[in-house]
């Protein structure tokens, strides 16, 4: 039996589809029943009968921050995919990020140890990878730096430390560090907002760039690593390193809209994050752009995927094909 935490998110829902399609017995956590409807939508992108696969999942309502709700998740479980996380770059959300990403992961690790779980796969992020140096791609062993790190990155890094602590106590673990994950179904959050933005025919794009990966490749890599004998390792999952301009050009071409052509000047970003900070202090508005986010746009981060390809002979899929698929589902 396999447990998937965060099964109602982008990665979790696609992982559940892969596992159920291949006949695995799966338990998944959820927080609200409305979230399960999103999973049904995602399944519907790939099959005409999503309900059949959805019925194979044992759903358990649980919150990884509430230790008392978690034991029922682990009944009969041998393998765990820990996908649950809170994503936010607003400094005001730091306590909640610590509670979910770091302390929640510690709870999962402790229960894995208690229930003699055979292997844990933790979904981290490239945000927890040390920055790349000029002319060289970042690798898994890059030195970690808190300089300009977002609150999200800080808590994902600390969550990884909890996983490594579990490995020292005898738990078999593997960590994946995906780039920005592209996949259909969550158009109002995360990478889904790129498709919304491009569809509106916006004229401006943010500077900089980062690593992008398809949700299919994230799922395939996770499953392959769990089925392998590899342990106590982490792997960067990135199909391609793109600038945001290049990404919007790819999306716009598939949505049949004009791509943004004006790079937002750095001085505008510097002004905006200060105004945004003031709006937060005076009006209590959520932060849209922080100082650390702005500094991050000054540099295009590059990531290497060589370690994964060499470890399990992994072949990444076609990023353009996934973007086209996402655009078709977005338009539908």
From TrEMBL:
One of its GO terms (cellular component) is cytoplasm. It comes from the Bacteria. SUPFAM superfamilies: NAD(P)-binding Rossmann-fold domains (SSF51735). Residues 2-228 form the NAD-dependent epimerase/dehydratase domain. GO terms for molecular function: aldehyde dehydrogenase (NAD+) activity. InterPro entries: Epimerase_deHydtase (IPR001509), NAD(P)-bd_dom_sf (IPR036291), NAD(P)-dependent_oxidoreduct (IPR051783). This is NAD-dependent epimerase/dehydratase family protein. It comes from Flagellimonas hymeniacidonis.
């Amino acid at each position: 039996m396999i447990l998937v935490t965060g099964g109602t998110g982008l990665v979790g829902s696609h992982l559940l589809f892969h596992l159920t399609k291949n006949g695995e017995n799966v338990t998944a956590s959820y927080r609200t029943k409305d979230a399960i409807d999103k999973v049904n939508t995602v399944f519907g992108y790939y099959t005409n009968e999503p309900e059949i696969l959805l019925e194979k999942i044992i759903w358990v309502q649980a919150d990884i921050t509430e230790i008392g709700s978690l034991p029922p998740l682990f009944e009969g479980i041998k393998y765990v995919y820990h996908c649950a996380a809170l994503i936010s770059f607003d400094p005001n959300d730091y306590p909640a990020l610590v509670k979910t990403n770091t302390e929640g992961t510690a709870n999962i690790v402790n229960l894995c140890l208690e229930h003699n779980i055979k292997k844990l796969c933790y979904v981290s992020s490239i945000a927890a990878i040390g920055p790349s140096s000029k002319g060289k791609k970042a690798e898994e062993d890059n030195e970690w730096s808190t300089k300009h790190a977002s609150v999200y990155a800080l808590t994902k890094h600390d969550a990884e430390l909890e996983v490594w602590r579990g490995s020292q106590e005898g738990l078999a673990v593997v960590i994946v560090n995906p780039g920005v994950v592209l996949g259909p179904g969550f158009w109002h959050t995360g990478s889904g907002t790129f498709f919304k933005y491009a569809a509106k025919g916006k004229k401006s794009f943010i500077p900089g760039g980062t690593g992008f990966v398809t949700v299919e490749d994230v799922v395939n890599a996770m499953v392959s690593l769990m089925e392998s004998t590899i342990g106590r390792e982490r792997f960067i999952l990135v199909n391609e390193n793109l600038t945001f301009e290049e990404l919007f050009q790819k999306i716009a071409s598939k949505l049949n809209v004009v791509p943004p052509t004006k790079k937002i000047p750095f001085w505008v970003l510097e002004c905006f994050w200060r105004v945004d900070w003031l709006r937060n202090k005076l009006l209590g508005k959520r932060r849209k752009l922080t100082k650390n986010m702005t500094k991050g746009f000054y540099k295009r981060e590059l990531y290497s995927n060589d370690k994964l390809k060499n470890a399990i002979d992994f072949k990444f899929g076609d990023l353009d094909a996934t973007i086209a698929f996402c655009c078709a589902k977005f338009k539908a």
